[in-house]
Amino acid sequence: MAAAFCSPIDKRQKHCSNWRRSDSSHLEDDIKKRIVRVLKFYLWTNPRLLRWVRIIRAFIILGPTGVPLLALCQRFSKCARQRTEAYPKFSHVEVDEVVSVLENIGSAHIGYLPPDYLNEILAYCARDNQVSYWNPHLSCDAIDRIARNAKILEIARNYLGAEPRLWLTRLNWTFSLADEPNKSASFKKNIAEYNFHDFHYDTHDFKALTIFIYLTDVTMESGPHVFIRGTHRSKSLREIKNISISDAVATQLYRDRIQFVLGTTGTIFAEDTRCYHKAAVCKNTNRLIASFDYVIRRKIPALPQPH
Question: How far apart are CA 217 and CA 11, in angstroms?
């Protein structure tokens, strides 16, 4: 039997063919990314259209299709288990109890962050002087360790019904009315913010969980987080349409269910942000808060480009 033989010309042709396929694939990916960027820019410059796109997305997630689609996401989740951080142990936290409170109310207290973590995060913020930080877990070791904390991941896993995927981390300052002009000028802003002082709900995924940590003392005077109990469980078509509502409407519809979350520096709580929630206005003192968003299937967003 004759031995197989590949001439130098054949090898070059094969190499060129592989190169062309690879180059074509990269070109297609680049075109897709450009199209997505153009569509996103078009949406963000057309508020009415963006609102309707958000309503349609909310209807898919929160409407009749939401339950079966969530079950499919939970069953076929492909997110690999993350490398976990054991400290702090939160040994007093009963995961089942936290998950039960989340299911019933929409928000649950977890515990308090150790001082060494707090000091590291505050030092990180002091170095950069930004109003808002996107995905600080990529550059702050303390934020990264919290995001991978074993107890927090266990809570997220049990609540989501699937392996949690860290979708986004944030650090965000909110300034008092008196301090707003001065601080806004001295801090570096890198993204356009919506008005988070209005009650609104989020649809990060078919089911998602956000961990919040107060990095300053939060009283009624310093912009506490506010949520409306039980509004994460199911929504009417009217509620789905009203992604954000005013304080007057919220008071009229949910007067007895509006709850303020107060706490000292280091307070940690979890919330299903499908419930209506907001940040109250800071009256006298500024507030710094960290958030960690866990989802089941949604792709991790790209970092926003500085203006």
Answer: 68
Number of domains in the chain: 1
Specify the higher pLDDT residue, 119 or 79: 119
Average pLDDT over residues 80-87: 86
Scan for tokens 């000292």, then name that residue: 264
- Tokens read off for 222: 């310093």
Residue 106 falls inside a structural domain: yes
Asked whether 291 and 211 are in contact (CB, 8 A), the reply is: yes
118 falls within a domain: yes
> Residue for token digits 């009203």?
242
Q: How far apart are the first and last CA of the chain?
A: 68
Look-up of token digits 């958030």: 291
d(CA 267, CA 111): 6
CB atoms within 10 A of CB 51: 14
* Parent domain of 221: 80-295
Please tell me the least confidently modeled range out of 6-10, 132-136, 198-202: 6-10
The C-alpha atoms of residue 199 and residue 254 are separated, in whole angstroms, by 12
- 57 lies in a domain? no
Q: Is residue 66 within 8 Å of residue 206, measured between CB atoms?
A: yes
Q: How many CB atoms lie within 10 A of CB 35?
A: 10
Rounded Cα distance, 190 and 172, in Å: 12
Instruction: Read off the amino acid at residue 272.
Output: D
Separation CA 212–CA 215 (nearest Å): 10
pLDDT above 90: residue 228: yes
DSSP assignments along 166-223, one per residue: EEEEEEEEE--TTTHHHHHHHSBP-S----TTSEE---SSSS-EEEEEESS-B-TTB-
CATH assignment of the domain containing 258:
2.60.120.620
Q: Tell me whether residue 270 is in a domain.
A: yes
Report field, pTM of the whole predicted structure over 0.85: no
Q: What confidence tens digit (pLDDT) does each residue in 95-123 have? A: 999 999 999 999 999 999 999 999 999 99
